[in-house]
Amino acid sequence: MRRPEAQTHPHAARARPSTINRGHRNAGLAAVDVAIMDFAEKVALDPTRITEADAETLRHYGLSDLDVFQVVLAVCLRRFFSGVVSAVGTVPDQEYEKLAPEIRTAIDAFGRPRSA
To answer: Exposed e or buried b for every residue in 80-109, given b needs 16+ CB within 10 A?
Structure first.
């Protein structure tokens, strides 16, 4: 994806995963990144609600149809993977346990607590 605005935005370098996890709209991200995250969130919650207007919002920021498709693929693959991991009761490995708590929270399958 080409996102020149993200590279030149003065706050883009300051956005930390823990800040984004608390709320991406107030994390100092470039407008294009907020739009991508809003779109991804909508896809994750209910892909059937996505409209042409949603894709057009991303195009407004310079994303191509391929870029939009790649966002959809990334979100849907994540949903699929998280569903499989949850359904089979996968337990995190030692590397997962070494991650900072805010990172574990951000990547955990749908935010559900895991039992070891």
So the answer is: eebeebeeeeeeeeeeeeeeeeeeeeeebb
Q: Is 18 helix (H, G, I), strand (E, B) or coil?
A: helix
- Say how far residue 30 (Cα) sits from the centre of its chain: 14
Are 73 and 1 in contact by the 8 Å Cβ rule? The answer is: no
- How far is the C-alpha of 86 from the C-alpha of 88, rounded, in Å? 6
In SS3 terms, 38-60 reads as HHHHHHHHCHHHCCHHHHHHHHH
pTM above 0.85, yes or no: no
Residue type, 27: A
Q: Tell me if 54 sits within 8 A of 39, measured CB to CB.
A: yes
Note the pLDDT tens digit of each residue in 82-96. 888 888 988 878 888
